Amino acid sequence: MCLRRDFGIQMTPLFDTMISAQMLGYEQLGLAALVERHFGASLDKSMTRHDWGRRPLEERYVPYLIDDVIYLEGLHDILSADLDDTDLVEESEIEFERVSALQWGGSEEADPDRFRKIKGSRTLNQTGLSILKEMYMLRDRVSRKADVPPFRVLGNEQLLAVATRCPKSRRELRDIRGFTDRVLRRIGDDALQAVIDGTDRKDEVPLRAKPRGERPPEEQQRVDEGIRSWRREEISKRNVPSIVILPNHVVERIAHARPSTVDALAEIPGLGKKRLQRYGEKILEIVRNPPPLRRRR
User: Fold this and answer.
1) What is the Cα–Cα distance from 225 to 68, expressed in whole angstroms?
2) Cα-flanking dihedrals φ and ψ of residue 216, to 5°?
3) Which residue of 15, 17, 257, 270 pairs with 250 in a disulfide if CB–CB is 3.0 to 4.6 A?
4) Reported pTM
């Protein structure tokens, strides 16, 4: 993603080992699990959070980097053959193309309530929530400016601790685990300002997140539920994952567009010719006569 974001380089065609494993019904999708499954080797994941942007690169890190790529060609060959044997090549390639076309969306601007997903946020009062939001935005700004992952700046545990304790001095910040001298030099003053700003703006942050926009039209909800219900039956019949039948993003697009003809359905991104031929009439039948909405408790 950084190649595309920073340099406009798009990697295509792309083969995604995780999507391939998902298509094949694997329970564990990560690279380490795939390598262990197919090669019997255990990858060292102890350096997952290492700052790989630091230069010069120390010699002791080279074997770790090699392990991360040395099995990829073999995995490609194995998974490609399995996708071919199970007649899932088209479905997989559609997902590969979709992923390769994704663009980096920046920070959390699209979801202003993302900070609420931090574990423990529900225990905070309104002031604490407001401080948590300020700390979350501070971390986001610093990480983007330094071009490093957010956890390299400060962990969620530290954000929550600041929101809970409301420190008023560097000394009180230092009492929070994770606020090392290096962190204090980097964001100490800004963190204290975030506490002040969060306290001042507490009335702007409700205890509960506001609903996101209006609910979809009832007809759209009915089509969505109808397709998902039918998909569950098809999953049971074919004993394959849901992504093979219809990925969620395709279900949502169909429910939103509610196509009335085969040609219109064929225009839905991500569907593909094989799914259209196999499921087209059934999907159109659901679109034309969607079931009533289930009662929500």
Assistant:
1) 41
2) -60, 155
3) 270
4) 0.72
CATH architecture classification, 2-101:
2-Layer Sandwich (3.30)
The answer to whether 194 and 162 have CB atoms below 8 angstroms apart is yes
Round to whole Å and give the CA distance between 17 and 30: 8
Contact call for residues 49 and 151 (beta carbons, < 8 A): yes
Is 291:225 a contact under the CB 8 Å cutoff? Answer: yes
CB atoms inside a 10 Å sphere around CB 16: 16
pLDDT at 281: 98
Q: What is the pLDDT of residues 220-266, one digit of tens each?
A: 999 999 999 999 999 999 999 999 999 999 999 999 999 999 999 99
Contact (CB, 8 A) for 43 and 35: yes
Mean pLDDT of the chain: 91
CATH number, domain 114-204, options 3.40.630.30, 3.30.450.20, 1.10.150.80, 3.40.50.1820: 1.10.150.80
Q: Cα angle vertex 150, ends 148, 42, to 5°?
A: 80
CATH class of the domain defined by 218-288 = mainly alpha
Pairwise CA distance, residues 223 & 270, whole Å:
18
Residue 233 CB contacts under 8 Å (≥ 6 apart), including other chains: none
How crowded is the C-beta side of 99, counted as CA atoms within 13 Å? 15
Tell me where in the chain the CATH 1.10.150.80 domain(s) lie.
114-204, 218-288
- Both tokens of 187, joined, read 């964001």
pLDDT value, residue 107: 47
Closest Cα to residue 232, out of 242, 222, 223? 242
217/200 Cα distance (integer angstroms) = 39
- What is the separation of C-alpha 190 from the centre of its chain, rounded to a whole number of angstroms? 28
Angle between helices 181-200 and 126-146 (to 10 degrees): 130
